[in-house]
Amino acid sequence: MRASTRKIALRLSRISAVASLCLALSTNKVDASATIARNTYLNNTACRFLPGDSGWPSSEEWQQLNTSVDGRLIGTVPVGAVCHDPTYDGAACELLKQTWSLPQAHFNDPSAFMAAYQQNASCDPYTSRPSPCLRGNYVSYAINVTSAADVAAGVTFAQEKNVRLVIKNTGHDYLGKSTGKGGLSLWTHHLKSIEFLNYSSEAYSGPAIKIGAGVQAFEAYEAAAAAGFKVVGGECVTVGVAGGFTQGGGHSMLSSVYGMGADQALEWEVVTANGTLVIATPTANEDLYWALSGGGGGTYGVVLSLTVKAYPDGVIGGASMWAIFGSIFSIGELTLPGATKDEVRTLLAPFTSYLAERNISYQLNVTSLPSFLEHIDRYVGPLPYGTIPSAQIQGGTMVSRTVVEKNNAEIMAVLRNISTSSQFYVAAYALNVSKQPSSPNALLPSWRDALIYYVIPQFWNYTIPFEEMAEQEDFLSERVMPPLQAWGSGAYMNEADFQDPGWKQNFYGENYARLKRVKRTWDPKDLFYATTAVGSEAWEVMGDGRLCRA
Ligand SMILES: Cc1cc2nc3c(=O)[nH]c(=O)nc-3n(C[C@H](O)[C@H](O)[C@H](O)COP(=O)(O)OP(=O)(O)OC[C@H]3O[C@@H](n4cnc5c(N)ncnc54)[C@H](O)[C@@H]3O)c2cc1C
Ligand SMILES: *[C@@H]1O[C@H](CO)[C@@H](O)[C@H](O)[C@H]1NC(C)=O
Ligand SMILES: *[C@@H]1O[C@H](CO)[C@@H](O)[C@H](O)[C@H]1NC(C)=O
Ligand SMILES: *[C@@H]1O[C@H](CO)[C@@H](O)[C@H](O)[C@H]1NC(C)=O
Ligand SMILES: *[C@@H]1O[C@H](CO)[C@@H](O)[C@H](O)[C@H]1NC(C)=O
Ligand SMILES: *[C@@H]1O[C@H](CO)[C@@H](O)[C@H](O)[C@H]1NC(C)=O
Ligand SMILES: *[C@@H]1O[C@H](CO)[C@@H](O)[C@H](O)[C@H]1NC(C)=O
Ligand SMILES: *[C@@H]1O[C@H](CO)[C@@H](O)[C@H](O)[C@H]1NC(C)=O
Ligand SMILES: *[C@@H]1O[C@H](CO)[C@@H](O)[C@H](O)[C@H]1NC(C)=O
Ligand SMILES: *[C@@H]1O[C@H](CO)[C@@H](O)[C@H](O)[C@H]1NC(C)=O
Ligand SMILES: *[C@@H]1O[C@H](CO)[C@@H](O)[C@H](O)[C@H]1NC(C)=O
Ligand SMILES: *[C@@H]1O[C@H](CO)[C@@H](O)[C@H](O)[C@H]1NC(C)=O
After folding, report:
1. Keyword S-adenosyl-L-methionine: yes or no (predicted)?
2. Which residues contact 162 (CB under 8 A, 6 or more apart)?
């Protein structure tokens, strides 16, 4: 095989190093907003109402909403309620505790979400049974969405009653974008339709898959395999394809061959802030199409379905590796469509020779499996859910090929420092998504020049005090990320540090101004809010979690 002439999807992940020092930086963050007297904004529609406010909708009004959505309004109860009095249930709590760090504890529930910092220990299996289950940052109500009419009823109600609106699909969002204190959530999880099409448009003619907004990657992968196709989706197989993944960019094991998630989008079915159902394609409502394809979830409208490109299934070469040098190096998975085992070994030969010459012992496993689904099951499975934890804090940055060529030593020094002086580890994805998509989209442009995408995570430890983990989050933002960001060219909005002060530039780059104009067109009253979403600077979260106009 002439590797240099093939499109290669090479992913190096979990280059991990065991950290030895425990550094906790104490910060004295004074939340000035907390001192604002609560009643100064009680009747002020500059802030969204919270339960208990005189302006909060009456139970009759909620019942009217419930009637208009055919009884699909849910008064939410945090999932962790089974671990606290008076709703304690020992067996259910124990079960929940075992999976709390994993997606499956959260994605089937209307109000649960995975961002550990934003969970704020308000109601979880690790706090004591007698401590109350507080609502904290959980939404108060959710509509179990089945149709455009349900969404229209929800957006109209939230707008008229000045209630914070949230869109939740699976709740994977690391930045807490799929929750909001006291909110009304549009819960898209049950929109599970899957349909295969022969799509034909100016930009693309070929096989496509139309998925409901609630379809998760494992469902899309399974359906595609059964029909003889493969599709671009996340490594975490429980992430929603049409939600945050494609809307935020979406990197996949197949991205070096087919592009990012956003590059697959052909057609969006969307309910806009005024309750209107529209179709957005490269030639119809093209500004909305452009923004939804990479410009961020929960910002421009409520997606009901997405049509994406599908590709013929076939053999996938793969590899994983462990090597001990310094501390530990590992390749979680390498993906090489079409390759035999020998071709995978040949591709890796320069690297394995390098290790051999230095007497570095390593274990390399190579595969060539008949379908993408089997490859997925082998490397990020077992299906259906996989085992990748969701409870973590992290920062990340893409580094361009030019910068790596010029400054590799400096970058390595920064990474070595992170892995030896902090409790964060270093994960890296090697990819090439430089190819322009068939239609322009709002993907962060620096993805196109990226050679490596670094993620700097730390798993959330629920057994230590919340404050210590919160300090780690500040330490990440203030000390760990800046030296690496100096070499980076932006961050992936879905896996970034939510405290990044440079979020506008880093998450959206030169697209920000245009995205803001699109938002103004489709959501002129700023109904949709999510932390670090385009337009979110118009809002401020106050000390009590209330959302107010800045
Ligand atoms: C364990 C784990 C592994 C991951 N692995 C990958 C990976 O390999 N590649 C990758 O690219 N990303 C990965 N991610 C990040 C993932 O893409 C994001 O968390 C993404 O936002 C999840 O989208 P969701 O719709 O499933 O989740 P949610 O948290 O429900 O939603 C995310 C955002 O999208 C918005 N949204 C959801 N549905 C809709 C809708 N129908 N209309 C409008 N807005 C909507 C929400 O409001 C929110 O802002 C991973 C995340 C986790 C937790
Ligand atoms: C808020 O409005 C309600 C009626 O809408 C009124 O009864 C109440 O006095 C107002 N409260 C404040 C603090 O202005
Ligand atoms: C909405 O109506 C359904 C059906 O009557 C009921 O089961 C549900 O509890 C109601 N929701 C709320 C929030 O009252
Ligand atoms: C967590 O809850 C405390 C009150 O218990 C509040 O002061 C703080 O602002 C909350 N933090 C977040 C991130 O929601
Ligand atoms: C949501 O609606 C689906 C049908 O669309 C139903 O199967 C499911 O049980 C409902 N979930 C809840 C929590 O109401
Ligand atoms: C698409 O076209 C091919 C070739 O004509 C045909 O075999 C296939 O059944 C079509 N698929 C769908 C979903 O219509
Ligand atoms: C390689 O395969 C063996 C046997 O299945 C397994 O025990 C080992 O963990 C694998 N190593 C890697 C790096 O995947
Ligand atoms: C590797 O090991 C061989 C045999 O033990 C030894 O001759 C050689 O010098 C070693 N090379 C390095 C780089 O350590
Ligand atoms: C090394 O990392 C620590 C955080 O772990 C940071 O405080 C320090 O400034 C870094 N040093 C350099 C030289 O980057
Ligand atoms: C990256 O991909 C593009 C095409 O998609 C290709 O032209 C280019 O050579 C690739 N770069 C490298 C370094 O492989
Ligand atoms: C959490 O922290 C405790 C106390 O430092 C430690 O014993 C435990 O191993 C940690 N758990 C994880 C999953 O890191
Ligand atoms: C809804 O918003 C769109 C885009 O802003 C606008 O074109 C349309 O006229 C609006 N429809 C109604 C009924 O207000």
Report:
1. no
2. 45, 48, 49, 55
Q: Where are the domains of the chain?
A: 3-190+517-549, 194-313, 316-369, 392-500
168 lines ligand 1 (CB under 6 A): yes
Nearest atom, ligand 7, residue 363 CA = 13
Q: What percent of the chain has pLDDT over 70?
A: 92
Q: Whose atoms come closest to the Cα of 175: which ligand?
A: 1
Q: Cα 286 from chain centroid?
A: 24
Domain 3-190+517-549, CATH number (from 3.40.470.10, 3.40.50.2300, 1.10.443.10, 3.30.43.10): 3.30.43.10
Give the burial string for 283-310 (b: 16+ CB within 10 Å, else e).
eebebbbbbbbbbbbbbbbbbbbbbbbb
Tell me if 332 CB under 6 Å of ligand 1.
no
Q: List the helix and strand counts (H, then E) for the chain.
A: 16, 19
Q: List all residues 6 or more positions away from 504 whose beta carbon is below 8 Å from its beta carbon.
A: 512, 537
pLDDT for position 37: 39
**Which atom of ligand 1 sits closest to the CA of residue 250?**
11
Q: Which residue has the tokens 């179990």?
A: 144
Biggest CA–CA distance in the chain, Å, is 75
Give me ligand 3 centre to Cα 77, in Å: 13
Residue with the nearest Cα to atom 7 of ligand 3?
A: 71
Whose CA is closest to atom 2 on ligand 7?
365
The CATH number given to 194-313 is: 3.30.465.10
Tens-digit pLDDT profile for residues 292-313: 999 999 999 999 999 999 999 9
Ligand with an atom nearest the CA of residue 205: 6
CATH of domain 392-500: 3.30.70
Tokens representing 367 are 């595969």
Which one of the ligands is nearest to 110 CA? 5
Low-confidence ranges of the chain (pLDDT < 70): 1-44
Q: Is 276 in the pocket of ligand 12 (CB under 6 A)?
A: yes
What pLDDT score was predicted for residue 44? Answer: 56
